[in-house]
Amino acid sequence: MPPYALAHLSDPHLAPMPRPRLAQLAGKRITGYLNWLRGRRKIHVSANLNAIVRDLKAQSPGHIAVTGDLANISLPGEFTAARAWLDTLGPAADVTFVPGNHDAYVREAADAAALHWAPYMQGDAAAPKIEFPFVRRRGPLALIGLSTAVPTPPFMATGQLGDEQLTRFERTLAQLGKEPLFRVVLIHHPPVSAPENHSKRLTDAEAFRKILSQHGADLVLHGHDHVHSLVWLDGPKAKIPAVGVPSASATLHSKYDPAAYNLYRIDGAPGAWTCEMVSRGLNSGGIGEIKRQMLVN
Ligand SMILES: [Fe+2]
Ligand SMILES: [Fe+2]
Fold first, then answer.
1. 225 CA distance to ligand 2 centroid (A)?
2. CB-based burial of residue 27 (10 Å sphere; 0-12 exposed, 13-18 middle, 19+ buried)?
3. From the CA of 101, how far away is ligand 1's center (Å)?
């Protein structure tokens, strides 16, 4: 097995943004486009993302997880460009993707992620359509992919799992819990949001955390907040680490953390798993190690 079973990156917010036609800017897209022109395009830098991906590939992780926000305002051209980018990351069998709010920015784009990026969001079991959660087994890992990507009004960036997905998630965790698997939950929005992030929270986070507290998981990976974060969630036997990673394209000079990604070395067996996390990211000299810690509680 490779030293790192898993690498996690998120929120690349791919640039350059294709030039939108005027008609495409109706509704929420106009605010997002102005936002991009005024500031976000200076934050999300292709050269930084390329450096992150180069460094990540040099570590030869067993699998790569990407937790959303490939797009910015969900233009048709963003979906085709993002598919080409995913294809450069690795074959779909080795790369798992879950969508973020910018990948379902407006109602007319709600189905575009499934249409363009399906191979990266498919479970092991053959299914007629993309459905969340999906499950992929890779060695001792079970990757459980969720979608919180729903269109929202302007100035809102909330996410929602919805009752049906939550019911399936509960059933999935219960089933996987009977097998000797290290369960990794992939979700774009964080399971806990600070009060100042109310307009970008996961609206049914409480129900999500309740299911985790009853059925357990070994690791939750998310993006969305564009910063390094670690919170411990209640589990049935032990606390569950939930780890957020910055945008993989972020500049050194913004209010967010610079571009980074995390690597996970997983050993042991059920009841006695060990999980080491290594964060690597952008600094003034290039890409280097930021921190290394064992995720134990
Ligand atoms: Fe994002
Ligand atoms: Fe997001």
1. 7
2. middle
3. 8
pTM above 0.90, yes or no: yes
Which ligand approaches the C-alpha of residue 202 most closely?
2
From residue 184, alpha-carbon distances to 140, 181, 222, 292 in Å are 10, 9, 11, 19
Q: Is 270's pLDDT higher than 90? A: no
pLDDT value for 1: 63
Which protein residues have their CB within 5 A of the ion that is ligand 2? 69, 100-101, 224
Q: Which homologous superfamily is 6-294 in?
A: Metallo-dependent phosphatases (3.60.21.10)
Closest ligand to residue 105's CA:
2
Q: Please write the tens of the pLDDT for every residue from 33-44.
A: 999 999 999 999
Tell how far the Cα of 105 is from the centroid of ligand 1, in angstroms.
Answer: 11
- In the chain, domain spans: 6-294
H or E stretch covering 243: strand 240-244
**What's the rounded mean pLDDT across residues 145-151?**
97
